Amino acid sequence: MRFRSAFAATVLLSVHNVQLHAADLAWTYTTDLASKGEVEFEQWVTARWEKEHGAYNVIDFREEFEYGVADNFQIALYLNHHYVYANSDVPAEDPAHPGKRLAGVYETGGENVHAGHNPVTPFDGYHFESVSLEAIYRLLSPDKHPLGLAVYFEPTIGDEETELEWKLILQKNWFGDRLAWALNFNYELEFEETDGGYERDAVFEWFTGISCRLAHNWSAGLEFWNRHEFADTTVHEYSAYFIGPTIHYERGRWSATLGFLHQLPIGQAFSHETKEFAAHDGYIFGDEQEQYYVRLRAGIDF
Question: How many CB atoms are closer than 10 A to CB 135?
Answer without folding.
Answer: 14
